[in-house]
Specification:
Blueprint: H1 2-9, E1 13-17, H2 25-29, E2 40-45, H3 51-56, E3 61-64, H4 69-81, E4 83-87, E5 90-94, E6 104-109, E7 112-117, E8 121-127, E9 130-135, E10 141-142, H5 146-152, E11 159-160, E12 165-167, E13 172-177, E14 183-187, E15 192-195, H6 197-207
Parallel strand pairs: 1-2, 2-3
Antiparallel strand pairs: 4-5, 6-7, 8-9, 8-12, 9-10, 11-12, 13-14, 14-15
Length: about 210
């Protein structure tokens, strides 16, 4: 029924469950040629173990049941804000909606993939046009500039320490005075990040009572 409805109505967006009679939501997509999948997909499921597979098929979002109205609204807002850019003649979706600390993001580095909550990321580090993402014992590289990441990260949750680093203040284990009125932050995992004098003032304002 889902296959017939999609082919008949040619929707802009399909909200797709994973566990369904007959075939799973992921298997449903296998019935379509690549050029037929010109619609956005939001998966809705009670099981988070399918998240990586869902994002491998370029899902717009992945909502866990019970679905909160605000979370659904945010997912739909991503579709509204979706901008189309062209790379080598092909349209590429660029999403710039704001991310909250409870959002989960898909991180891919080569053949390795992760699905990680933002509040579990302790540090972003600029590496040219890429950014290194620090979480758990992993440090994958993603094709995003630090400035592009900063635009989507909540400033109440992440702090731009300097030109090369964005830190999660909840992951800071020690703060020490540093050269010329700056600060030195020791992040969970042992990384030490310098904060300039100007940014140190902002940091103290953000963290003070």
């Amino acid at each position: 029924e889902g296959i017939k409805a999609i082919r008949k109505h040619k929707p802009d967006l399909v909200l797709l469950d994973i566990e369904m009679p007959g075939h799973s939501g992921l298997e449903l997509l296998d019935f379509f040629d690549e050029n037929e999948v010109d619609f956005a997909i939001i998966f809705t499921t009670a099981y988070d173990e399918y998240a990586l597979r869902a994002f491998e098929v370029n899902a717009l979002d992945y909502l866990l049941k019970p679905i909160e109205p605000k979370r659904l609204a945010d997912a739909l807002h991503k579709l509204e804000e979706d901008e189309r850019e062209t790379v080598d003649g092909e349209p590429v979706s660029t999403n710039r909606s704001m991310l909250s600390e409870n959002d989960q993001v898909f991180v891919k580095d080569g053949e390795r993939c992760w699905f990680v909550k933002l509040n579990e990321i302790r540090l972003f580090e600029s590496v040219g046009n890429y950014a290194k993402v620090f979480f758990s014992t992993h440090k994958p590289l993603i094709l995003k500039s630090l400035n592009a990441l900063e635009e989507r990260l909540d400033e109440k949750v992440f702090f731009r320490a300097n030109r090369k680093h964005i830190v999660n203040p909840r992951m800071i284990e020690r703060v020490e005075p540093y050269f010329n009125g700056g600060l030195l932050l020791e992040i969970h995992g042992g990384d030490k990040i310098e904060v300039s004098r100007r940014q140190a003032v902002k940091f103290k304002e953000m963290m003070s009572l």
